[in-house]
Amino acid sequence: MSTFGRPAAAAVAPLIVSRHQDNDIILRWRQRDPDTGVETPVDLTGWTVTVTLSSPQGQEWTSWRALTDVGGVVHIGPTVTLLSDPVWASRPTGTYRVVAVSGGRTVVLADDQIRIV
Q: Are 35 and 28 a contacting pair, CB within 8 Å?
């Protein structure tokens, strides 16, 4: 399981995922109190989190809704079912982006390169 997260900024975390198994990748969204410096998990109630995979040139390949959990936890996958199509064998590298939306507010949680093996 991979866990990453960074308060107040999109995580920069290149990923390597397998087409042959479920990928249990978790992002933890936390915010830092500017007065105390204490980090606390974001309450994800009412947030929709979407993961998008794209080509290196920016052409969207697929997207899916991520599962959210208590403590600011976002399960971003991807699953073996999603990547089981043979087309993924011809897509060894690309980019991924995790975006959270609630009430007109959009936050990019992670944005980096992905390698699909």
A: no
Is 19 in contact with 80 (CB distance < 8 Å)?
Answer: yes
CATH of residue 86: 2.60.40
Kindly give the pairing relationship between strand 15-17 and strand 105-116: parallel
Domain count, the chain: 1
Burial of 42 (0-12, 13-18, 19+ CB in 10 A): buried
Retrieve residue 60's tokens.
């969207």
H, E, C per residue of 35-68: CCCCEEECCCCCCEEEEEEECCCCCEEEEEECEE
Give the structural domain span for 108. 2-116
Dist. CA 73–CA 108, nearest whole Å: 15
pLDDT per residue as tens digits for the range 61-99: 999 999 999 999 999 999 999 999 999 999 999 999 999
Whether the predicted model's global pTM rises above the 0.85 cut: yes
